Amino acid sequence: MALAKLGVAFGVLLSTGCSHPATEAECEIIFRKTAELTLRERTQDAAVIEERIEAYRRTHGEKVIGQCLGRALSKNALACIQKADSEAKVNDCLR
Questions:
Q1: Cα–Cα dist 35/2, whole Å
Q2: N or C: which terminal CB in the chain sees fewer CB atoms within 10 Å?
Q3: Residue pLDDT tens, the chain, 95 long
Q4: Ramachandran bin of 69, using left for φ above 0, alpha for ψ from -120 to 50, beta for the remaining angles
Q5: How far is residue 56 CA from its own chain's centroid?
Q6: pTM, rounded to two decimals
């Protein structure tokens, strides 16, 4: 599944600059943004996207969020992620 790439995004969560340990809420933002952008490549149906995000969250969310939790994250990186319009841009924000 395309959402399997989420683990890769969290694996590169090594932002530079003034950073802090990522919180669960911040990890959830990153998770949802990456999942949404990945799924938008396949469909524009918001209901389908939300359904698939929730299904993936139920089966893999704890592990994916756990990989992110506590990793270095800057406010700039999080702002960048929230503005990103592609999965590649999210990954760039996390480098």
A1: 8
A2: C
A3: 555 555 545 554 543 458 999 999 999 999 999 999 999 989 999 999 999 999 999 999 999 999 999 999 999 999 999 999 998 999 899 88
A4: beta
A5: 12
A6: 0.78
Q: How far is CA 66 from the centre of its chain?
A: 12
For residue 18, what pLDDT is reported? Answer: 84
**3-state SS assignment for residue 50:** helix
Which residue in the block uniquely carries the two structure tokens 């590169």?
12
Structure token pair of residue 88: 């590649």
Q: Give the domain ranges of the chain.
A: 2-10+23-93
Specify the DSSP class assigned to residue 23. P
Structure tokens given for 8:
């890769």
How many residues belong to the chain? 95
Residue 42 to residue 24: CA distance in whole angstroms:
27
